[in-house]
Write a structure and sequence with these properties.
Elements lengths: L2 H15 L3 E3 L5 E2 L5 E2 L1 E3 L8 H17 L6 E5 L4 H11 L3 E4 L12 E2 L7 E9 L3 H12 L3 E10 L3 H10 L3 E6 H11 L4 H12 L1 H7 L3
Parallel strand pairs: 5-6, 5-8, 8-9, 9-10
Antiparallel strand pairs: 1-4, 2-3, 6-7
The structure holds 1-O-pyrophosphono-5-O-phosphono-alpha-D-ribofuranose and orotic acid.
Protein name: Orotate phosphoribosyltransferase
Family: Belongs to the purine/pyrimidine phosphoribosyltransferase family. PyrE subfamily.
Subunit structure: Homodimer.
Length: 217
């Protein structure tokens, strides 16, 4: 069993228990991609729970060990990936960098902060994958700096085929600690989302793009 498989129910239960998962079909959330969705998973709340953030750090460390990744540097995506990248880099005693969504508009104009040498092997830490656009953009910035991106590790993925295709096209492995399917399974078992929420979410996940269009003003 992979560390991802071993931890997915525990991490999903943690997200549900701390109230990281919000449901609002009538006033949909707007995602970074511009998509409207009835669900928002706020992994940022994890940083407030020392025992849970240790679970995340340890999960990422186990994935790196299991898949025999040998990073020289741990990178975090700005902003939500940064704290987890920092704790992992500290745990593994490795250097760390972080990648801004776009180059800074003042100062030194950098997109990558911290020291990154050409040819270094990087594991990129992201908090969440929806369309995958943010993490692929961060990986491309690292590759433009002549780094080799070994993998992207994230806490949660919606598991959209579009995101999987993007990672496949970029030839970057993606490993996630949990995903929407497991989250819904755990929520159903423990009655953590009501029947209406479960029905809307099952309907939405079949066609998130169509759902978004139908719910945009
Ligand atoms: O897979 P995608 O479609 O790109 O969406 C996921 C991204 O969106 C969120 O970041 P956000 O832009 O909200 O910024 P933040 O990390 O600074 O909160 C999240 O933290 C991911 O980085
Ligand atoms: O796509 C996003 O922007 C997004 C979705 C989500 O559930 N949580 C989050 O932090 N960002």
């Amino acid at each position: 069993m992979t560390p991802e498989e071993a931890l997915s129910r525990q991490v999903a239960a943690a997200l549900l228990t701390i109230g990281a998962v919000s449901f609002s079909p009538d006033r949909p959330f707007t995602w970074a991609s511009g998509l409207k969705a009835p669900i928002y998973c706020d992994n940022r709340l994890l940083i407030s729970y020392p025992h849970l953030r240790r679970t995340i750090t340890e999960g990422f460390r186990q994935i790196i060990e299991f898949w025999e990744l040998e990073p020289d540097v741990i990178a975090g995506t700005a902003t939500a990936g940064i704290p987890h990248a920092a704790w992992l880099a500290d745990r593994m005693e490795l250097p760390m960098v972080y990648v801004r969504a776009r180059p800074k508009a003042h100062g030194q104009g950098r997109q990558i902060e911290g020291r990154l040498e050409p040819g270094q092997q990087v594991v990129l830490i992201e908090d969440l994958i929806s369309t995958g656009g943010s993490s692929i953009a961060a990986a491309e910035a690292l590759m433009a700096a002549d780094a080799h991106v070994l993998a992207v590790l994230a806490i949660f993925t919606y598991g959209f085929p579009e995101a999987e295709m993007r990672f496949a096209q970029a030839e970057i492995p993606l490993h996630t600690l949990t995903n929407l399917s497991v989250l819904l399974e755990v929520a159903r078992e423990h009655g953590l989302l009501d029947e209406r929420a479960m029905t809307v979410l099952e309907d939405w996940r079949v066609d998130p793009y169509g759902w978004s269009e139908a719910h945009s003003e």
